[in-house]
Amino acid sequence: VSVGLDRDAATKVLEDGALVDTVREKQQFWTSRGVSGVPSMVFDSKYLVTGAQGAENYAQLLQRVAQEQAA
User: Fold this and answer.
1) Could you identify which of 3, 5, 29, 61 might form a hypothetical disulfide with 10, taking C-beta atoms 3.0 to 4.6 angstroms apart as the criterion?
2) Is it the case that residue 51 has pLDDT exceeding 90?
3) What is the mean pLDDT of residues 40-57?
4) Residues contacting 37, CB < 8 A, separation 6+
5) Contact at 8 Å (CB) between 50 and 35?
6) Residue 19 gets which letter from DSSP?
7) CB burial of residue 70 (10 Å; 0-12, 13-18, 19+)
8) Contact 48, 31 (CB under 8 A)
9) How far is the C-alpha of 50 from the C-alpha of 32, rounded, in Å?
10) Nearest Cα to Cα of residue 19 among 7, 32, 10
11) Which helix (H) or strand (E) holds 10?
12) Whole-angstrom Cα distance, residue 27 to residue 41?
């Protein structure tokens, strides 16, 4: 409730497992691509960055992506 969820709707989903298959599909999709924890971010559909990274690391990666897209 404190994060904006409807208590009754959230309780129903947890009790009946209505989203279990969807969640497991998404979990399999990302784990098969190397994501094993959070935070995990994918840049340009090919660069996976896991864990907290400093601003300089993100700046370097974004510059690399921009250069590749400009080429």
Assistant:
1) 5
2) no
3) 90
4) 50, 51
5) yes
6) T
7) exposed
8) no
9) 14
10) 10
11) helix 7-16
12) 15
Q: How would residue 34 be classed by pLDDT, with cut points 50, 70 and 90?
A: confident
Q: Name the region of 38 (left: φ>0; alpha: ψ -120 to 50; beta: rest).
A: beta
CA within 13 Å, CB half, 39: 7
What's the rounded Cα separation, in Å, for the pair 3 and 43? 28
Distance of CA 39 to the CA centre of its chain: 7
Percent share of the chain, pLDDT over 70:
100
Residue 65's pLDDT is 96
Q: Which has the closest alpha carbon to 45: 57, 60, 56, 34?
A: 34
Residues ≥6 apart with Cβ < 8 Å to 51: 37, 39
Residues β-bridged to residue 43: 47
